[in-house]
Every structure is written in C-alpha cells, then in structure tokens.
Amino acid sequence: MALPKTLQPGLTPDELTFLAEEETIDIVPLFSMTRVRLLGGIYGPFQPPSASRVPLWLALSLKRKRKCRIVPPEWLSVERLTGILKDEKENAEGFERLSTRFIETSKVLLDVASDDLSQPSILRSLLKDLREVRQAKIRIGLQSEGVMRGSYLQVTNLTPLELSELKPFLVKAMTMMQSLEPRQEEDEQDDAGQGLGVGNGYGEED
Amino acid sequence: MDDNYFSLNSILADNHKLSCTFTLDVPGLGYLEGGTENDIHQHAKVELPFWLAQTLSLNEFTTFPLPPPYTNRVKSALNASAQSVKLANLVGGNGWWYRWGRRIADVLDDEPQADLLNVLLKAFVNRLPALQDLAAHHASADHTLPENSTSSGEAFRDGMEGDERELFAIGQESGKLSKGWYDSNSGRKGGR
C-alpha cells in the first residue's frame, strides 16, 4: 500500500487534533473588525468587550498573535475535572463519558492559552491523572475475558484519540486469535475454559 | 494472520522443514535425500519444506509425525508457563510458530486439528498480556539509557516468534506516536 505504515490503521493523534480544531469556542477579541468571510465560513463581528464564537483553529491563531483571549470551555476547570477524575476512579467497570475531542481540546488549550485558564498546572496534573486512570483500565480490559476469547474489547466511551493508540495492536492480535480458533462450533462450547478439552470424548489424544 | 496469496510472511512460513516418511518408492528423486542414490525407497525419511510435504501428504505419498515444536513436551511447557517458553528457538530464529502450526493443522484430521489449534490459541492468549506490557513499556521507555537485559520482559522478548515480533513492533509504534503527541507542545511551534 502507498500509505506509510503508521498511517494505515487509522487517524494519527495529529490528525485528530486537526479535526478537533474545527470545534467552536468563545473568544474575547482584542481588536475590532466587522464580519469576515473565509472559506470555512463567516466569522465575527469582533467587538472587544463582547465574546464571539469561532472555530478553535482561528481562536488559537489569534491567540498566538495575542489578538484575543480564549474563554475556556466550562468543563476545563479544576472543580469539573476533579469531579470527572473522581467519577472515573469510582467507575471500575467502564469509562466516564467525555466529550469527543476532550483530550485534544484540553491539550491545545493548555499548550497555547494556558494564561487564559485558571490554575493551568493543576489542570495539567488532573488531566494527566485522568489519562493514567483510563490507561490502567484499558490495560486491564486488554487482559479481560472478552479479549482472551478473541471476541471483543469493551471500549464504550473511549475517545477517538485513545482508540487510535489501541487500535493497531488490538486489530492484529484479534486477527491472529480468530485465525487460530478451531473451526467447529460445538468444539468452541466444550472449550470455554480449557484449551485441551476437545479430545475428551474419544480418549485418544496423541 | 493473513493467508493472502501475496503475503511474504505466509510464503516464508510455508518453507519450514518437515520430516516426512515416504510410503512408496519414488524413482529418480533420490537427490531430495541428499545422497547419491537415484531413487527414494519406501519408509525413507526426508526433510521436506512444508509446501511440498503438504501436497504429498494430502495425496498420501508421505506421512509425518507432529514436528518437535508442537509435541506434548512443548505443550506441557506452555501449560506450565506460556510466557517463559521461547517460541523463537523452537522454529529457528526467524520462524513463525503460530503460522506454521496453523498450516500443519490444516492438513490434520478434525480431532488432532482442533487439539493443535487449541494449543496455539491458548499459548497466544497466555502470552498476550506479557507482550502488551512489553510493547507499552518499550514505547514509553527512554532508550538512550542502557537497559539491563536480565528482567523477565527482556527474556520474553528474546523468545518471540515472527508474528509476535510484528505485533510488538505495532504496539510500540502506536504507543510512541501517542506519547510523542502528548509530549509535543503546539504552543511553541507558532502557527501550524
């Protein structure tokens, strides 16, 4: 195939970040301008004291030129993240529901506009904790019954970014398991826990 | 494991040598045995590549016992501790233990076939957690530091067969990609 190997399985984190930059966010501009028509849509008008809603990429670009202040989304606050982290820890069975572009958005905002956020270092460590808790759950999930039987992995509420890290490995591992699966259906049932249960009825294992 | 016609790995895995016994005399093929005789005699033992042995065995010109990497001895070792069996050593440094096992299973009758596949599947499943941990560890580890190769993870890594190595590389690569993204800082890059 013509694509490089790293791009074949799906989207890369950078591509996902690019997609996340299409989401809209509120900014308070530091300059005035009337409506502006760009290829992607019509943005503005920009009038300093009042906020306006623009795509994230535009907000970041303006922010880098120090022409706006980004209004952080309401979930990107210490209280909300502490709450999410607590729920995530308590919920041992599954994953907490995060907005689709949660990780990407929070990362670029912390990278580019950390001075617009309150207590960015605490936010950073909360996000890191959250990631670690979820990673630990993924790791446990990978060794769960479902994966071991080559059938499924519980990924409800994982964000596309987390999936992109997991997918190449999992797809290959599952393909291998499926190709090693014995072909007869009745054998599979005999065989739920023990690998060698198949020959039992005949008593002539070699 | 793709059995794609164009898959180089499949072709290479078919090349593992299998020790076969001829059930009839074959004139003119003595060179397969490596000797100076002109003919192959009945009951002669010859090491044949699997792709040849398969066809001959399906036509009942040859028979073969289960090759050493899949015998009961290995089976018991896998049952005892799947992660410490060095599959790579069983099939030669660059072999494909699972692939070849599956190809052999294709030739076998129903019951031994299911047996063999179960051994393969169980081995894979039991080795998967170690493989996954190792890939994750290598994706995040700092490779500028010298590593101590005494740990069990490194021992496991030495024993990986062809497809496991590939899986390891895939896991490591995607882990690295993600880590690189988390560590990157789009604030410093200026306009992107």
TrEMBL record, chain A:
SUPFAM superfamilies noted in UniProt: GINS helical bundle-like, PriA/YqbF domain
GINS subunit domain segment(s): 75-180
GO cellular component: GINS complex
Record keywords: Chromosome partition, DNA replication, Nucleus
Pfam families in alphabetical order: PSF2_N (PF25005), Sld5 (PF05916)
Subcellular compartments: Nucleus
Example GO BP: double-strand break repair via break-induced replication
Superkingdom of this protein's organism: Eukaryota
Domain DNA replication complex GINS protein PSF2 N-terminal intervals: 12-71
Region (Disordered) location: 178-206
Bias (Gly residues): 194-206
PANTHER family (UniProt xref): DNA REPLICATION COMPLEX GINS PROTEIN PSF2
Subunit note: Component of the GINS complex.
Family membership noted in the UniProt record: Belongs to the GINS2/PSF2 family.
Protein name as catalogued: DNA replication complex GINS protein PSF2
Native source organism of the sequence: Kwoniella newhampshirensis
TrEMBL record, chain B:
Subcellular location: Nucleus
Keyword annotations: DNA replication, Nucleus
Record carries keyword Lipid biosynthesis: no
Primary location recorded for the protein, binned into one broad class: nucleus
Acyltransferase listed as a keyword: no
UniProt xrefs under SUPFAM superfamilies: GINS helical bundle-like (SSF158573), PriA/YqbF domain (SSF160059)
Similarity comment text for this entry: Belongs to the GINS3/PSF3 family.
Subunit structure, as described in the record: Component of the GINS complex.
Stated role: The GINS complex plays an essential role in the initiation of DNA replication.
Official protein name in the record: DNA replication complex GINS protein PSF3
